[in-house]
Design brief:
The chain is mostly beta strands and 315 residues long. It contains 6 helices and 16 strands. The longest helix has 11 residues. Bound molecules: zinc ion. The site of zinc ion (ZN) has 7 residues, from loops.
Length: 315
């Protein structure tokens, strides 16, 4: 299973809830009048009391409602299809949005008794899922050490307001051009599973990408490598730390690429990240054209694996 998925960022108010899940306990807030509440808050929505305490509960409850999602809610969840999205009513009465595990879609029904499953993600996050009371599914999904989290260098801080640059202000746009690169994006793992999926999608299933055994014996790299085109499209999963926001346009057109190079391979299982610089800004007939050089590197490698001079047209 791939771990290239969004993970929660605990806030000061919600931190005890997430810490509880890490300890494999469901902890809820209860006010001094006895009302249970969820999601975590500073006051009771029933009586307004601010006298709240965190208490451990069993986590037992029942399916309040559910949806079997056959189209991924985010591209990152394509390996979990169908997604068994549910609202679980805990016995304390609170409702929790979650996903069900260890159950076939046709077995789910409203009122189904469920118990918690603590899904330890690599790193610091544990997610709360549920499985039927009588399921044999383990109560804990252990973090897969081989699949690292994406969050190590992800920009976790709340998004700040970025300096705005009007696309019609050519001087201001040209001031963005720089020889220096941005900070790094988040990291994602290029797993053999992703490579196999891309091989199937693109039709390029050459053994150098898809046959780990033969690659070990015969490939100069000693292992399978990702398709350059795959690494290039994975840029969409890398959140580049933008330092500005372009405004004042009606439309942005992705005009393609001035240069696309694959200088070094990405071996299967490696983690990648990216950075960028604005390489050029010019006025063209239909608007302002900006060339952004995006470099994707294997984490720790000096030489990039992909160089993409992306051309965007602000109209
Ligand atoms: Zn209350």
């Amino acid at each position: 299973m791939s771990w290239n998925k969004p993970l929660p960022h605990p806030t000061e108010i919600s931190a005890p809830y997430w810490a509880g899940l890490q300890a494999h306990e469901v902890r809820l807030q209860q006010c001094d009048q006895g009302h249970w509440l969820f999601f975590p808050r500073t006051h009771c929505p029933t009586c307004g009391s601010r006298q709240l305490a965190w208490r451990k509960v069993s986590g037992a409850g029942e399916v309040y409602t559910y949806t079997v999602a056959r189209v991924p809610t985010l591209p990152e969840f394509t390996d979990e299809m169908p997604q068994l999205l549910a609202v679980v009513a805990l016995d304390e009465g609170v409702h929790i949005n979650t996903t069900l595990v260890g159950v076939a879609p046709e077995q789910i029904r409203v009122g189904l008794r469920v118990r918690p499953v603590f899904d330890d993600r690599p790193g610091s996050a544990t997610l709360l899922r549920f499985t039927p009371q009588d399921s044999v599914h383990p109560g804990v999904i252990a973090a897969d050490a081989a699949a690292q989290p994406q969050q190590s260098t992800a920009p976790a801080a709340p998004r700040q307001t970025l300096p705005q640059v009007d696309c019609k202000n050519l001087d201001a746009m040209r001031a963005l051009v720089s020889d220096g690169y941005s900070d790094w994006s988040n990291e994602i793992a290029v797993t053999q599973e992703l490579i196999d999926q891309f091989a199937q999608l693109s039709g390029d299933d050459y053994w150098i990408h898809t046959d780990p055994e033969r690659a070990r014996r015969e490939s100069p790299f000693g292992t399978t490598i990702a398709h350059g085109a795959l690494v290039q499209v994975l840029i969409s999963r890398l959140q580049l730390p933008m330092e500005f926001e372009v405004t004042g346009y009606h439309n942005i057109v992705n005009y393609g690429s001035d240069r696309l190079r694959f200088p070094t391979p990405v071996p299967a299982g490696c983690r990648i990240h990216a950075r960028y610089r604005i390489k050029a800004v010019e006025q063209v007939k239909s608007g302002t054209q900006m060339t952004m050089e995006i470099n994707v590197h294997v984490v720790g490698q000096d030489r990039p694996s992909v160089i993409n001079d992306l051309v965007m047209l602000y109209m």
